[in-house]
Amino acid sequence: MKIFFLRLFFILSLVFFQFSFFNILFSRVSVPIILIVAVVAWTLIVGFPRVLYMVIPLSIFFDIASFGALGALTLYAVPLAYATDFLSRRLLAEHHGMGMILYALFASLGSFGYGVFHFVFTRGSSFLWSAETVTRFFRATGFLELLLPIFSSVVFFPILYWSIRRFETYMSFAVQKEILQMR
């Protein structure tokens, strides 16, 4: 039970950090950068099947707290986690050095993709990409709203990767400790 509450506390602290820190400083940006970078980092650390137990509650708590369309981040985060796992298995890049830079760029691409996803599904745009849709997207989003998520994702990726890796290491020790106490 302790493990469940620790995971829940960590997930809620990520959502709280997104709302209390990032949304206050950059209120014009509609991308939950901290959460998208956390999805990419968590997927790299634990893999796709295990990350679903953290991504779905993370995105649902964000959707509930943001008063947005329920399930919008979930619809984006699950395919993003799958694409991250697919990319990490196909490239076989290490999780340090040049591979870490590649994954940080992938997290920034994920942030940009959520901006496009949010624009298409919340503004009543058609699902078909046309020249008119592309021009409406670039007119509706400002330069700051477009580039800030990309750059801040690269900055936050190593910080979140390190903190999530430490959390998962602690959780594996906590699980082993509980199993040993049961015997």
Explain this structure to me?
- The protein is mainly α and 183 residues long.
- It has one domain.
- Helices cover 83% and strands 0% of the residues.
- The protein contains seven helices and no strands.
- The chain has helices spanning 2-25, 33-46, 48-66, 72-91, 98-122, 131-140, 143-182.
- Helix 1 (2-25) runs antiparallel to helix 7 (143-182), helix 2 (33-46) packs antiparallel against helix 3 and helix 2 packs across helix 4.
- The model has no long low-confidence stretch (mean pLDDT 81).
The total tally of domains equals: 1
C-alpha-based Rg, rounded:
17 Å
Residue share in β-strands: under 5%
Which residue ranges are poorly predicted, with pLDDT under 50 across at least 5 consecutive positions?
none
Largest sheet: none
Q: What is the molecular shape?
A: globular
Ends apart, CA distance between termini: 17 Å
Instruction: Give the strand tally.
Output: 0
> Which structural class do you get from the secondary structure elements?
mainly alpha
Give the SSE string: HHHHHHH
